[in-house]
Amino acid sequence: MAKAKTAFVCSDCGSDYHKWQGQCSDCGAWNTLSEIRLSGAKGSGRSPAGRSQGFAGELAPARVLSEIDVSQVQRIPTGMAEFDRVLGGGLVPGSAILLGGNPGAGKSTLLLQACCQLASQMSALYVTGEESPQQIAMRAQRLSLPLDQLKLMAETNIEAILAALDAHQPKLLVVDSIQVVYSEELSSAPGSVSQVRDCAATLTRAAKQRGIVLLLVGHVTKDGSLAGPKVLEHMIDCSVLLESSDDQRFRTLRGQKNRFGAVNELGIFAMTEQGLREVRNPSAIFLERGEKQSSGSVVMVVWEGTRPLLVEIQALVDDSPLGNPRRLAVGLEQNRLAMLLAILHRHGGLQVGDQDVFANVVGGVRILETSVDLALLLAIVSSFRDRPLPRDLVVFGEVGLAGEIRPVPSGQERLAEAAKHGFVRAIVPRGNAPKTSPPGMQVHAVATLAEALALDL
Ligand code: TYD
Ligand code: MG
What's in the domain note (predicted)? Predict the structure, then answer.
């Protein structure tokens, strides 16, 4: 065993060092290194100094890919189609899944609902470190979930959880949450970098060895990153984030990392009296607008994974009292907003340098797609000129640095979805111009930003 028992770990990226240093050489973050005591257990954690010199154990066989039997890897559907959609088709045995979210997002509710259903086909153990078994049982009862299969345990000690794994031999293990689990072998407090890192590694390893599904709950901080070390994200196979909408009614589940599927899928739930309900056809749920059309607002169609979503983009442009005007984007990328304003100045001839610009996606949706560019710019121009855009107009398209409007994927499907919801006018990239417009819809295909701004609607 190597002598060093402590290491310095970056809380941002998880890199470890022998000595303390002010800046992490890997990710460049300052002041993120903290000392952790490595647990003495063999193989636990990733010891920087403790790499083994030789190997005396039994060597695992190395095989060519074609010899490896993959037919047995079956996905287990959770019974919640929206959850499965984000997971890429269901749970994979021997994998570790991290469910992140703000406190109150509904992580415990989602997992309780899924596990109560799953427990009838596979033995499941729910380890709770935050709520008492009574609280959870009461909730399950209130939500009319099947109560007779799921095993529940209140425990935060990792050694005890491992012992319970041996005793109950579950096929599905939930740990709610990883931040409260601690190991006695480490001196630091639960929730600290070293505890979270070590406990998650131990649990992940146990899950892989036993071929069970491990579901970890993790809290996120205000800025959306996982409380505790980022290194957790490297360890687990799949990381999903549950976020609540502005008005708290809807919850969106988004994949951030998935070793078994795509990450761009979005699952949508509604939080009701009866727990989380799936929203099967969510394309227009975020679209609730008053009768009066105001300037600075326009509807666009986002393509989330494999389906469309109609969302309203709002912009407010106002004289800035400050020397350095503010640019604020909620639900959109801040840097992209700055870039689009520069394009607007250069290729649209509109100077907003002395104006505050606020942009918002209604309903708390986060748009990562570039198809929002044109809609956002038109909303900004509409607010700046104080001229409302028509209520029945839908817009999408990417805007390039040269002021050109670039096509986006699934243009036809986006238009069809908008037509279905009563939109009769559309501004789309020329590359997305349909051969035949959806019935009753007038489609303006534009190639440049100047063309789009010149349209008289
Ligand atoms: P919870 O699952 O405890 O959140 P987390 O584990 O992510 O912290 O959910 C708590 C919130 O959900 C709480 O604000 C109340 C709300 N809720 C409902 O509105 N209806 C319900 O049926 C349940 C169980 C919770
Ligand atoms: Mg909880």
Answer: The middle region has homology to RecA with ATPase motifs including the RadA KNRFG motif, while the C-terminus is homologous to Lon protease.
Distance 108 CA to ligand 2 centre (A): 4
Q: Which residues contact 259 (CB under 8 A, 6 or more apart)?
A: 95, 237, 238
Name the closest-CA residue to atom 21, ligand 1: 275
How large is the ipTM?
0.96
User: 84 C-alpha to center of ligand 1: Å?
Assistant: 20
Confirm whether 45 is domain-assigned: no
Residue 3 confidence (pLDDT): 54
Say yes or no: 440 and 411 in one domain.
yes
What domain count does the chain have?
Answer: 3
Please state, for a pLDDT cut of 70, what percent of the chain lies above it: 91
Q: Shortest CA distance to 426 belongs to which of 378, 384, 358, 381?
A: 378
Query: Do 313 and 271 reside in the same domain of the chain?
Result: no
Phi/psi for 428 (5° steps) reads: -135, 160
**Residue-range definition of the domain harbouring residue 420:** 297-454
This prediction has a pTM of 0.76
Give the confidence band of 110 by pLDDT, cuts at 50, 70, 90: very high
User: Residue 355: CB partners within 8 Å, gap ≥ 6?
Assistant: 317, 318, 319, 320, 325, 384
Among all ligands shown, which has an atom nearest to the Cα of 111?
A: 1
Return the residue whose CA atom lies nearest to atom 1 of ligand 1: 106
Which residue has the CA at smallest separation from atom 11 of ligand 1? 104
What is the DSSP secondary structure assignment for residue 93, as one 8-state letter? T
Write the CB contacts of 46 (distance below 8 Å, at least 6 apart in sequence): 16, 201
For residue 446, the cross-strand partners are 429
